Automatic annotation (TrEMBL), chains A, B, C, D:
One of its GO terms (biological process) is ectoine biosynthetic process. It holds the Pfam family Aminotran_3. Pathway: Amine and polyamine biosynthesis; ectoine biosynthesis; L-ectoine from L-aspartate 4-semialdehyde: step 1/3. Belongs to the class-III pyridoxal-phosphate-dependent aminotransferase family. This is Diaminobutyrate--2-oxoglutarate transaminase.
Length: 423, 423, 423, 423
């Protein structure tokens, strides 16, 4: 096939998802994505949680087309634009104010990694310290500053140079249910001879999207926040994958009584998959000099337009949130049934849920079986052992159920046969 | 004014261009940008060379609207999509093949910094070395890996942690016309006791867009490439600001007889200001493991669509290139006249030209005077002393001339009065 | 007093022990040290375990005087000398061979820190990895490479630059008796996404001399060695303070069934307090190039002479070792009695034993009270809370008992009064 | 031979000088060193300038024996001792006061590298900056902090980890006589976009002992000092190899009108080759906290005794200095003659002089020829191309002349034949 040949010839070996899903796709709507042979696939990957509202939401699409048609500014560096103002005002009104958050909004280069880089730089500036505490299995991006905080060795090795400036702590539950890793961190930071330098920041995901869908408890997160405060460090929540509704609320930490000093957002923020990232900063820590952290595409106005439209459509009242909660409940029930059937365990929280398939090989086989049946789904975890459901939050109940049926059957097909082989 | 209040209240202090141009803009077409009071401004900033084809080029805009309307995939991670295939095939046909370049194309996170991070990581992987040679006044981005290669101290200080992994060499002409800085570099790398560790890469801009429009000669660049080869380092051209036609050819090094191992592109690549970045890699160095360098927005399909349209429109034959050459000639004449009149010198190459105004204060005053007359223009250089013309390459002759008239008058207004004050 | 004025005027503020013991000393013999007013002090500091055989042992002294008198070479760079040969042959015969150790001996610059620097550099060379695992409360020296492995924040802050290349693990018992920190380390190193980079080495003290006399169990050390082996890291025992008989055997790990790849020695090695340090390396890891790690004073021949004499005198048979064991037993009984009396706990192993006085203030007050009574003794630990007995191993039973009487009385004087104050 | 077998079997491969001089030495007096077969060698290596007063100077030896015999304290940590007081008072009276230097004296671990580590750490503490400027071909030691400042790639590679915290500048004359490298450094530091971070310190040797006997002019050093002052950096002279009389005065910068903020000394300081190192610090920069930089052997009292005796003997009046000047003059004449004869050039200053033999191979052959004739001499330089004369400053005129005769003949033997071979 000609398109395949182009990719083989011209694209870098670094490509990855195209290896799991070796089709050429061209159109997408809602939870469905189509290949050039017009076959439809249900999308349980959703751009790794970038398409929480599905593909090409009609209202977002309409807003974008209207804006472009009217010669709205596409690229504005960080100049004031109407579209940016509208996004900021909407974000303030629907997201920040209702939560009592007075954070400033920094538009960074439009990648999550860039938002993390900005967060870490700022925390170091504010505190005059260089050490950052990050957690086992954390994923924060692959540019050198963010990568130092990322746990995954494949990505770390990609730096091909030592990564520094980060001390590693154990995530909630890392050493089992009986060991409180927050207490361990407190012990280390309180001991002046522990070798843990006083931190500029503690950066944490509430659910580790790449690291295996480990979900921290509100209590543990509260302890970590308190530790940060006590030791003069900024408390940063990287909400890039878990935020924007994925776990239920707009922020993954909604309702937990937390008050992070910095929050990073990206992925589903623009609502339509357009590149957009931001770093929320408590005003007292917004000590940036003009342009000290900059970037060409920090004014992606198309994304401002769709992002504002998404906020207006989904976050103006509780309806969407309630619907997501119901879907999450349903998802949990379905995955629990699968897990029970195969003596496995489920991982995650909200609509960010998966099943630990026991090994990377089994998880891969399951995902492959799903794809054969028209379901796009991927793995997560240290050994890629967790089959991860990241369906669009807007998926219809019917399509969701059908997709989960495929998933269930794939577990059966793979683990049934595995068991048979073992017996 | 309400919009201003929103920015004051909600946006981070890090914003910069909005300080120079304190208006709220909403629409733009070609070389003109409009504020919400419908005042028109001529844009000699062009998104810092991101809008080489002007704002909202009608053909690009039409291609985008058509694509979106048809539910084309917006966000595709790094899966195969029709839009990506079309871009790759077009890029290969119109750009790579005619130049005999067999480079692979890596889609990185859609920021120039990310393309640079990928380039430096890969060079370190390929060579097993960690040191990178970068140049005085170079600018490569502000994420930690790219920032280490960037020369600007304001940006470097923003890291708030020491930057490592880069040795600094002097750019062409840095120590005056009589000193060959390439020879100096060769001397240092050939001396096993010089303290310059064997480099993984030498990264260079052919014209330093942020660093003061210093333009390297083809001869010097050739020497630097030869030094890289001799010492086992990859030769990387960062063509993010100078590429995509800004200096005349598609690549800023067209016609120089160079063969860079890696090239980074971003800014004007998408043609319409949409975030897109890529790293071109000679196949023998494309040793990435799948996903080793990844990023959520590396499949920005809207940008693929407009980028392919831009290549088709502007680079299928010589017309555009010839027109740019004529405009560059005209620009040089106009700036030369200004420089002569005020005993100043001009900097840069092609449509990336400026006048060293003697000091940052004078340059700022000139830009301010321009803005009052409806011309958006910015500075560059170690002391922001160069008034930099980055007009859209597609600007009409009339608008170009009128803009340069404003510029000329502003020099007169500021430097005339300065001289008067001095006398 | 004139001498004091000289120090005040000329010596750097960095001096420390002279603040605890503000007298000018001039002579010393065995376990006694004299000030210039001829007052005698019992030395329970012993040069921080550098004078395990006491001051000016008559046989060592005689050997040195004889050597100097005969114009023996004092300084030999790393040329072959008779004195070095004699030391090497003796060390091989009495120390290495009986233990079945085939290690090569590297003479580094004559400081413990330098031996550690050599060990870490070599482990990185051997493995091609840069990360080193070091432990909470570890102390390995204050030059930049060794300091990165050191836990103490006062010393770390002295670098005034971030320290890198070390991941921190928890020492035996760090999180209490119920948590096996070796299992934790194994978990982290086996998890490819833990953020612990594959280590070049694990470096450990069997007893943490500066870190509070924490003593690792043989079982835990065996586990750590096995972890190092499993993960391709070199296992380094830093035996600088605990070695040379301090804990009973020549090496602190004698009889534990361990086989460290690298061992560092210094402090008491020369037997008389002369600067000498070495790094023992298993032959298969001795891949140094000639002079790759060098240093002017790595051939301190005076120290070779006394070191060989010390080995001959104390380590040719079991007598010394048995005597040390008896003294250690006595010491443990005496300190246990003190600890019981004040509801405190004892720390350490062998003749490297102390009492956790509950706080740094109390420990300091106790040491001060001792000094007033002619006993020199110091503290250790994260908060300097451990009163540490490091008497010469050769101290007479009578002087040892008398010194411990003073110590006991000082605990009584300080903690009695503290309790009285609290009541 | 038995001793050789011991070294082969037990000593690490890192040994180096023993490869050039494969004999076992046992005694030494003045400028003569003897092997165990009683063959005498003239020592033009002098412990790499550690034995400026020759081997076993009778007065120093007597002082040491007397001190040891009387049970003088050998090892005193950093407690006040009579021997230290005597050294400090003598150093102040004979060295500091006459030069109007009010520097404090820090006793570091007794290696030059350790003195450099202390200097760099302190400069970073004082300035709050991390970057240090060091020069091409500089040598400052091989522990990680000092090694970062060292230029030699063999030593740098030994770290097996990237070295950071140092920017490299070109030494006096590095780019030829016509290029003022101090002006280049000033240009780079004055340019906020040069990529040279504001430095904590500039560290320089006045003559590069290991780097090829490059000698900086007083004018250039004065410029560098002024640059340091202007840019808020401490000016550090590493006088470890060039100091203690080697270039004529006690400090190598005597009479140059310089006022370094920090000076490091080691090598010949103890006068007899015993390990001793110190860091001289202007009082206003002596902001160390107690023990912030420490080390077990910083109180090597034997070395204090011989160091004070050496100062008294050689530096109480001008006699020694004048004699050294005469010898240096004679040396220059002899080497000039050799250089002229073979169309070579001489390098260095004072009694730290050599001949650039054209290549490392030739230099090695010459040294080998010398050794065959009983002369110990070594090379220096990026390619080990400089034959370096480091005779004891106290060598008799007769022995000096005879040694130089051997050197002259060896040049003839090697370069004569080389030329013959070439013809």
């Amino acid at each position: 096939m000609k398109p395949m040949a182009t990719f083989q010839r011209v694209e870098s070996q670094v490509r990855s998802y195209s290896r799991s899903f070796p089709k050429v796709f061209d159109k997408a709507l809602g939870a469905t994505i189509y290949d050039i042979d017009e076959r439809a696939y249900t999308d349980f990957l959703a751009g790794c949680s970038t398409l929480n509202y599905g593909h090409n939401d009609p209202d977002l699409k309409a807003a974008l087309i209207e804006y472009v048609s009217a010669n709205g500014i596409a690229h504005g560096l960080d100049m004031f634009t109407d579209a940016k103002e509208h996004f900021l005002a909407t974000f303030e009104r629907l997201i920040l104010k209702p939560r009592g958050m007075g954070h400033h909004v920094q538009f960074t280069g439009p990648t999550g990694a860039n938002a993390v880089e900005a967060a870490l730089k700022l925390a170091r500036k504010v505190t005059g310290r260089t050490n950052v505490i990050a957690f086992t299995n954390g994923f924060h991006g692959v540019t050198l500053g963010a990568l130092a905080a990322t746990g995954n060795s494949k990505h770390r090795d990609g730096a091909a140079t030592p990564l520094s400036g980060v001390s590693r702590a154990a995530y909630d539950g890392y050493f089992g249910a009986d060991i409180d890793t927050a207490d361990m961190l407190e012990r280390q930071l309180s001991d002046p001879s522990s070798g843990f330098d006083a931190p500029a920041a503690i950066i944490v995901e509430t659910v580790q999207g790449e690291g295996g869908l480990n979900a921290a408890s509100a209590e543990w997160l509260g302890k970590v926040q308190a530790i940060a405060r006590k030791h003069g460090a900024l408390f940063i929540i990287d909400d890039i994958q878990a935020g924007c509704g994925r776990t239920g609320g707009f922020f993954s930490f909604d309702g937990m009584g937390l008050s992070p000093d910095i929050v990073t957002l990206a992925k589903s923020l623009s609502g339509m998959g357009l590149p957009l990232a931001l770093t929320l900063i408590k005003p007292e820590f917004d000590i940036w000099k003009p342009a000290e952290h900059n970037g060409t595409f920090r004014g992606n106005n198309h994304a401002f337009v769709t992002a504002a439209a998404a906020l207006d459509k989904f976050w103006a009242d509780d309806q969407f949130q309630n619907a997501v909660a119901r879907k999450a409940q349903y998802l949990a029930e379905r995955l629990m049934a699968i897990a029970d059937r195969h003596d496995l365990s489920i991982k995650g929280r909200g609509m960010m849920l998966g099943v630990d398939a026991g090994s990377g090989e089994q998880a891969e086989a399951i995902c492959k079986a799903c794809f054969a049946e028209g379901l796009i789904i991927e793995t997560s975890g240290s050994f890629d052992e967790v089959v991860k459901v990241l369906a669009p939050l807007t998926i219809s109940n019917e399509q969701f159920a059908a997709g989960l049926d495929v998933l269930e059957a794939s577990f059966e097909a793979v683990l049934g046969s595995h068991r048979a082989a073992a017996e």
